[in-house]
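Section 4.2 – Deliverable D4.2 (structural model, holo form)

The reporting period included a commitment to supply a predicted holo structure for the target in complex with iron/sulfur cluster. Inputs used:
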Amino acid sequence: MSKQKIIVSGMRPSGRLHLGNYIGALQNWIRLQQEYRCYYFIADWHALTTGYEESAEIRENSREMLVDWLSAGLDPETSVIFRQSDILEHAELFLLLGMITPISWLERCPTFKEQLRELEGKNINTYGFLGYPALQAADILAYRADAVPVGEDQAPHLEFTREVARRFNYLYGKVFPEPETLLSKFTLVPGIDSRKMSKSYGNYIAMSATPEEVREKVHLMVTDPQRVRRHDPGRPEVCTVYRFHEIFNQPGAAGVGEECRSAGIGCVQCKGLLAEKLAAYLQPVFEKRRELEQKPEYLDEILHEGGKRAREAAQATLAAVREAMGL
Ligand code: TRP
Ligand code: SF4
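Output (structure tokens):
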């Protein structure tokens, strides 16, 4: 039997996840568990690169995110689930990779310039923020990953990681594979205002939403703006509610579309139907969260066990790294 391929990926702890995170990234992670040896971690040091002034929130946000991961079906028996700051080897490798990383590689990362511009009010002109891609490379290379599942926005960081791996191997001998980028097949979930669903826009539905919260959010969703009266025919193709039907109400969506076009269904009724489907879809996640909230010590246990397994793997890599460098 060939060795199982290794997958590594991390998420910054942003607190509770929303449906966009769930459909976009998390379900992909869950699928990959069957086939690969997966290392999934809470990137809490990464949260510091732009959020060092709000560091007090990171621990609680990490726990909330972990609960969402487990509620959605990440399995701590199958996958190695851990917290970045528990594995000091990431920091050691970050330091060593820093020695061979040209500053220009960091400065030309598109995310670097973009975020400096976007987070203008924040002082992120820091060494840590500039070094973000090198820390990410260390996260990945510490496990000698074969592949990394990420969204498109992270592709430049993966390219950077391969370049650093190549440079290390060239200088000191081959220690690292060059990890492949596994672009997630993306289903973009709109926010309730039709823009991209995002925490910062406040247009999101939490994946841990209660049925009541789901109903409230669905009723706030924008519809076809030209459909003013009940007997006006609607255009599902421009309607956010319909987009949600397409994602969460299969195979019923096509029927809803026809009923909308023929004015056979009203928007209030259409939203009611969606709220029901969505609540049913999220029911198991919601139940699992409630269960997990009963046993907070279980979360510590998972991080402890996952940390042990991650550390073992990272320590083996770092031993090879020190050896190759002659330390
Ligand atoms: N930078 C990633 C993000 O913002 C999070 C991340 C940190 C990550 N380290 C990683 C993703 C390693 C994949 C692999 O989404
Ligand atoms: Fe949108 Fe449904 Fe109203 Fe049609 S009936 S416009 S799909 S909310």
